[in-house]
Amino acid sequence: MSTAAILTAAGSGSRLGHLLPKALVPLAGVPLVVHAARRLVGSGAVDLLVVTAPADSVADFQAVLDGAQLGIPVSLVVGGASRQASVAAALAQLPPEISVVLVHDAARALAPSSLIARVEAAVRSGLRAVVPGARVTDTIIEVAPAGGGALDGRPLAGSVLEVVDNPDRDALRIVQTPQGFDRALLVRAHAAGAHRADDETRAATDDASLVAALGEAVHVVTGDPDAAKITTSRDLRLAEIVLADARA
Ligand code: C5P
């Protein structure tokens, strides 16, 4: 049984305030995509790595990944209009011997090898769709647009929302990556959701939700705070602290 990791890295760096594609933004001098790839290899669970890259940066990604000398086969695939489309493009390139697929965001550059190994082992144990889930520390509310909200006859600044649900915090989890799947199930889920893939406003933001839409079970293993997504420049500064602590 062979395992491939699809590392999604075809997003832009705009929210990080960078001109570089986000996955090439350096963290302690090393591009995010290399941090993520090293941890995937370090798990000992990955036989093949497929990285999705923006169409105009494939050569830059190739150079960075070659330089990282990862020690397993690495291929690059041009990403699509959405994360979902990028994963579908990578899935279509997998060789026949792959039976387990991990899908991981380069933006979760510090997801530890232990987490990656835990997800992969859960899939190999027979669970066909597995996600890491981290507990939430905040109280989470579900909201909907609310009418009204005026002071002295003028509408309040900003949108006013209304609380429509107060879910029990103990029953909530933050969904992280890597997410692990039986290959055939993931292929079926992407085929069923393909009509949404090219519209970023409708595309799935993760792969497990496509599996759930088929009515198939998705299992949750314990997540890791270090697998948090690096989206803003503040996240990047926090990730530098996490990395320095891990090295201390
Ligand atoms: O935009 P978001 O932060 O949700 O992206 C999650 C991951 O998906 C990132 O690692 C990003 O590089 C990747 N992505 C992709 N193809 C796209 C959009 C995002 O591979 N079209």
UniProtKB/TrEMBL annotation:
EC top class named in words: transferase
GO biological process: isopentenyl diphosphate biosynthetic process, methylerythritol 4-phosphate pathway
Membrane spanning stretches: none
Known EC number: 2.7.7.60
Family note: Belongs to the IspD/TarI cytidylyltransferase family. IspD subfamily.
SUPFAM superfamilies (alphabetical): Nucleotide-diphospho-sugar transferases
PROSITE patterns linked to this entry: ISPD (PS01295)
Originating species: Pengzhenrongella frigida
Cleaved signal peptide residues: none
Protein name in UniProt: 2-C-methyl-D-erythritol 4-phosphate cytidylyltransferase
Catalytic activity: 2-C-methyl-D-erythritol 4-phosphate + CTP + H(+) = 4-CDP-2-C-methyl-D-erythritol + diphosphate
Residues at the site labelled Transition state stabilizer: R15, K22
Keywords: Isoprene biosynthesis, Nucleotidyltransferase, Transferase
Positions MEP for the nucleophilic attack, annotated site positions: R169, K229
The organism's place on the tree of life at top rank: Bacteria
InterPro entries: IspD, IspD/TarI, IspD/TarI_cytidylyltransf_bact, ISPD_synthase_CS, Nucleotide-diphossugar_trans
Classification via NCBIfam families: ispD (TIGR00453)
A GO molecular-function descriptor: 2-C-methyl-D-erythritol 4-phosphate cytidylyltransferase activity
Protein function: Catalyzes the formation of 4-diphosphocytidyl-2-C-methyl-D-erythritol from CTP and 2-C-methyl-D-erythritol 4-phosphate (MEP).
Annotated pathway: Isoprenoid biosynthesis; isopentenyl diphosphate biosynthesis via DXP pathway; isopentenyl diphosphate from 1-deoxy-D-xylulose 5-phosphate: step 2/6
